Each structure stands twice: as C-alpha cells, then as structure tokens.
C-alpha cells in the first residue's frame, strides 16, 4: 500500500459544521417554533469544533448565541438595534435568553479573517528560485518544482529525459513479448 494524499486537514469536520449550520438555518426559517432542534444542531456544531480544536469563523460566531445556542436571525430569534452612545455600535439581543452582543462600527476595523495579511500562504504560493511557475494547489507546485529542477540539471531539458523513458518502455515491452512467445512454444 502506498501513501495517500492527506488533502485538507479536518475537511470532513468542516463539512459537518457547514451542514449543521445550514440545517439549523433552514429549520428555523421554515418553522420558527422549532427552536429546540435548531439549538441541538448548533450545540452539536460547537461540540464538533471543540473536540477537533477548530476555530469557527467570526461571521458564523456572531450569528450564534453563546448562552442558549440559538441561531440569531433578525426578526425571528433576535432584535437588532443601532445605538450611539460613545461610539456607533449595533446591539443584537437574543429573544430566547436575553443575551446582548455589541459590535462597533469603526470604519477602519477589520476582522482577522478578512485581513489578507493574517492569512497563511500555501507552499505553492511562496516564490522559490527553482520554481518557474506558481499554482493553486501544493501538488501542482511540487510537480512544477520537480520539472523545473530537472530542466535546470539536464543540458537537453526534459525532452531528452522523456525520450530515454520511452525507449526504455519500448525495450521492456519487446522483452515481455519475447518472453511470452517463448513460454507458449
């Protein structure tokens, strides 16, 4: 057995979290009285994130009540008010438990997830001196890096290496055909 490509870490967990959030939102919008099922979905979502040690997106966390695990949908389970005391801010109040959340309106404020400087760069996006092209996936970057280094090391480029491989394959297939013919006779 060979090694398998790991892919995106915790991909299945993120898919479950996404599904549970969408199911909770759809359940609440179709039947607003079914808040118990919505709370169960959100509680399960948070449990999965905690057990896998995953950070939830701040935009997602802003729509979930921390106290009662209710989905905060304006007009159904939450009220939204605009206030200006010291600074302009939005007040979101959960109608189930009464929890109040306040979000400031600073024009220069940006969440960490929205800030491109906080994003991690993939290995393929990092410019190396041996890489001639960048790609969107790490596998393509590794292939591009390998082919570039072969080009640099070989005086005739990749075409000579390919010709050598095709000649070897032809001679191997001829040997296999001869072995089969002699074995049958």
List key phrases describing it.
185 residues, single chain, mainly alpha, 5 helices
Description:
The chain contains five helices and three strands. By secondary structure, it is mainly alpha-helical. It folds into two domains: 11-118, no CATH class; 123-184, no CATH class. Strands 1-2-3 form a three-stranded antiparallel sheet, with no helix packed on it. Strand 1 (78-84) and strand 2 form a beta hairpin. Helix 1 runs antiparallel to helix 2. The longest helix has 27 residues, at 158-184.
**β-sheet strand percentage:** 5-15%
Structural class: mainly alpha
The stretches of 5 or more residues where confidence is low (pLDDT under 50) are: 129-185
Q: Tally of extended strands?
A: 3
SS summary, helix count: 5
Tally of distinct domains: 2
GO molecular function, one term: hydrolase activity
Family: Belongs to the eukaryotic/archaeal RNase P protein component 4 family.
InterPro entries: RNP4, Rpr2/Snm1/Rpp21
Organism: Octopus sinensis (East Asian common octopus)
